[in-house]
Amino acid sequence: MNDPALDAATESGITAETSSGSETLRERALTALVVARERTTLLTGCVEEPDLTAQHSPLMSPLVWDLAHIGNQEEQWLLRAVAGQEAIRPEMDSLYDAFEHPRAERPKLPLLSPTEARGYAADVRTRVLDVLERAALHGTRLTEAAFAFGMVAQHEQQHGETMLITHQLRTGPPALTAPDPEPVPLFTGPSEVLVPGGPFTMGTSDEPWALDNERPAHRREVAPFFIDTTPVTNAAYQAFIEDGGYTNPRWWTAQGWAHIRGHGIDAPLFWRRDGRQWLRRRFGVTEVVPPDEPVLHVCWYEADAYARWAGRRLPTEAEWEKAARYDPAGDRSMRYPWGDADPGPEHANLGQRHLRPAPAGSYAAGESPLGVRQLIGDVWEWTSSDFLPYPGFRAFPYREYSEVFFGSEHKVLRGGSFAVDAVACRGTFRNWDYPIRRQIFSGFRTARSESV
Predict the structure, then answer these.
(1) Per-residue pLDDT tens over the stretch 214-232
(2) Do 156 and 37 meet the contact criterion of CB atoms below 8 Å apart?
(3) ω before 196 within 30° of 0 (cis)?
(4) How do residues 142-196 score in pLDDT, each as one tens digit?
(5) How far apart are CA 348 and CA 380, in angstroms?
(6) pLDDT recorded at residue 452
(7) Going by C-beta distance under 8 Å and a sequence separation of 6 or more, which residues neighbour residue 288?
(8) Peptide bond into 216 cis (omega under 30)
(9) Domains defined along the chain, listed by start
(10) Mean pLDDT of 311-337
(11) Residues 432, 217: contact at Cβ < 8 Å?
């Protein structure tokens, strides 16, 4: 008898694993789940209970909401959808439904206390590890290649990033520490590189844990263009500010100009001028803005205005992905700029290993074949593109992950940041947000058409 779910998995390029392959997948899933939970524990264990239950910004949930929501999503997908178990606490589904309750309203809900939330998440995890030990990692689209376990690990790591954003927004003394990235010599390479025109394969059909909006792989034609070798730095952005970038409507879209004027925006979020220098607040520490780091905490409107001021533009999403994945020698698309190997610490600044971007030009080992650096990690990079489905897109496993966000309201960001774990960051991974968002770990690089 044909299994429609298995047929769908086969169509998407995912096939059943051998016994030894299943064990490798099991180990990979276990590692991803454990690493995600270690991060959650760090982010919720480094502050006292009042900081866990407080809402530090109406843009973000209380940390204790994230903690219980992580456990609830894990229960829904791994204990119920995969293992067929009964709900532990059915009332949790509505209480921790991200679509039912906007972030600004969540502090008013009868949330679990920090102790209760930790206990619930731990109970779910204990049961999940038992399910993982016995689950057949094939047969349905959810279980094939341990997809559901990878999806849940990615979900928890994505909330790890949002919780880190909450830590950046909270006031008070620092609660987190991490070593700074290794210092590197000032980058003296070319400021831009030419990406050849022609078709390339965008998206994926065979990355086992890729999410629905990354699928399917398809051919995309891109005209030749130039792209910045590194992300735009704080020093370069300061030149835009000093040249009156925030006071000249010439550089802004009508919506962008109205937004910055209406909200009194005259610099990246968390920056303030002190005499002739700029300071910033970073996880409870005030410091001089480092000139050679990629600029951080700018919205799409700011990135777009800077690009216009510089006589350039933001790259399209397709241009960004071609710069990040295309190998002209093999005429193929790779998983990452450096090849198909999973990210290592020599390739990119990922996983909250540091609490800041590395200097522009870092990670030579992560350079693309075309010579572009830091396409993965450090800062999310705004593109000019709206968040839209690829040709042949099919929502899976639920519409609310991607499909309900498609349209012109959201702009695409690519590449991940220092706050993103490698499990949730690929050359095909797509992020999206409103063009006004600045609390996210967002920066950008610019591009120009070859004829310009």
Answers:
(1) 999 999 999 999 999 999 9
(2) yes
(3) no
(4) 999 999 999 999 999 999 999 999 999 999 999 999 999 999 998 999 999 999 9
(5) 13
(6) 56
(7) 277, 278, 279, 280
(8) yes
(9) 4-169 (1.20.120.450), 179-452 (3.90.1580.10)
(10) 98
(11) no
